[in-house]
Each structure stands twice: as C-alpha cells, then as structure tokens.
Amino acid sequence: MNKQELVDAIAKHAGLTKTDAAKALDATTAAVSAALKKGDEVRITNFGTFTVVKRSATTGRNPHTGAAIKIPASKQPKFRAGKGLKEVVNKK
Predict the structure, then answer these.
(1) Sequence ranges of the domains in the chain
(2) Euclidean distance between CA atoms 9 and 21, whole angstroms
(3) N or C: fewer beta carbons within 10 Å in the chain?
C-alpha cells in the first residue's frame, strides 16, 4: 500500500474527503517525526510504539576494495508492534 492508497482508505473508513484525509495523514506523520526528533517516544494503544535507538560508530568494509571504512554513530527510528496489531495480523 502506498501513501495515496492509504489516504483513500482513511477517507473511506473515516468518512472524510481525500483532501482532509491527506491533511490528517500528513499531520500525523509530522507529529510523530517531530516527537522522535526530540527523542520522545510515541505510543499508540493497540497499534505500536515508535522510538529512537542510538547506534554506535562501527568499522565496516568496502565490498569492492576490502578497505576499512568508518560508519559514524547515528540515531535510527524503530517501530515495535503492539498487541492489538499483532493479533489482527496473526488472526486466521
């Protein structure tokens, strides 16, 4: 499912226009992104939790030359599915 298909599904499910659904989706992603940028955690009950994890600097290898390269430390967004989402996905 791409973004436009998600907007269509939100519009249909919530009874919104596609324009309003797109604005709602954009506002949601912006709010989650802003919270993660601040280092906060975003929990959506029965859906999941968005967090930021710190990855330490490591040394890697260039696969073509075999030369060692430094991979800098970074922060990575992470999503952990909640119980409700897991149940929906695994329901038979």
Answers:
(1) 3-90
(2) 9
(3) C
**What is the pTM (predicted TM-score) of this model?**
0.80
**Residue (of 82, 8, 73, 76) closest to 48 by Cα position:** 82
- The arithmetic mean of pLDDT across residues 47-76, rounded, is 95
The dihedral sign for the CA sequence 46, 52, 54, 58: positive
Angle value at C-alpha 57, between 53 and 59, nearest 5 degrees: 135
Q: Please tell us whether the domain made up of 3-90 is placed in CATH 3.40.50.300.
A: no
Query: 79: number of CA atoms within 13 Å, CB side?
Result: 8
pLDDT tens figures, 11-28: 999 999 999 999 999 999
